[in-house]
Design a protein that fits this description.
Strand content: 35-45%
Structural class: alpha+beta
Largest sheet: 7 strands, antiparallel
Oligomer: single chain
Length: about 200
């Protein structure tokens, strides 16, 4: 699959990377800052630690969405928001209603920025190292990570009904990539970390 085809797939990659629910019990958090046209910011987070042969595996999946829209005119009898997130949302919208802030926030105003993160770490001995922890969905997108490159990235424009820009970063770290002073934390146990980060900015 060519780079342009991969970038077109990134819009769906974020959802596919975090779609599968973690098995068993997991810590799950969600939060949002409301606005007059819908949430200005949303966060969903899942995290789970589970034993693995000779070690432990930690999984983290997260989705962050930022949508700074121009505020709707407030009704004349509008009351102050009762919750803290709603008050924060009103404060943000009031600041965005000034010419200076609209100029500074122009690249993001009336656009949606989605960030998906899938990260796994393991202190078990894995034959394939950090590559064994990468999401299997990447292969379906035609992305083949390389073992000798701890950081890889793709970026480019998205064309379609909602034009935008997409960027994907893959991170693979093994024991050899950790500074010596941090290796002592793992007490000679193996360590692998893999992370897939997808950023997509589109017109709202």
């Amino acid at each position: 699959m060519g780079i342009l085809s991969r970038l077109q797939s990134i819009r769906r990659a974020g959802e596919s990377l975090v779609a599968e629910r973690l098995n068993g019990e997991a810590l799950s958090l969600s939060a949002e800052i409301p606005g007059s046209k819908g949430p200005l910011w949303q966060m969903q987070l899942e995290m789970k630690s589970e034993p693995q042969a000779g070690g432990e595996r930690l999984r983290l999946r997260a989705h962050f969405k930022l949508s700074l829209r121009k505020a709707l005119p407030a009704p004349g009898d509008a009351q102050a928001a009762s919750s803290l997130p709603a008050r924060v949302g009103q404060w943000v919208e009031r600041r965005l209603d000034t010419p200076l802030m609209q100029t500074l926030a122009a690249p993001l105003l009336d656009r949606e920025l989605n960030t998906w993160v899938e990260m796994q770490t393991s202190t078990a001995a894995l034959d394939a190292g950090a590559k064994a922890l990468l999401p299997t969905q990447l292969a379906r997108l035609g992305i083949e990570p390389k073992n000798d490159q701890p950081v890889q990235a793709w970026a480019g424009e998205l064309r379609g009904a909602k034009p935008g820009f997409a960027q994907m970063t893959l991170l693979q770290l093994d024991q050899r990539h950790i500074p010596p002073n941090l290796q002592q934390v793992f007490a000679d146990r193996p360590f692998q970390l893999s992370a897939a980060i997808v950023n997509v900015i589109e017109e709202a």
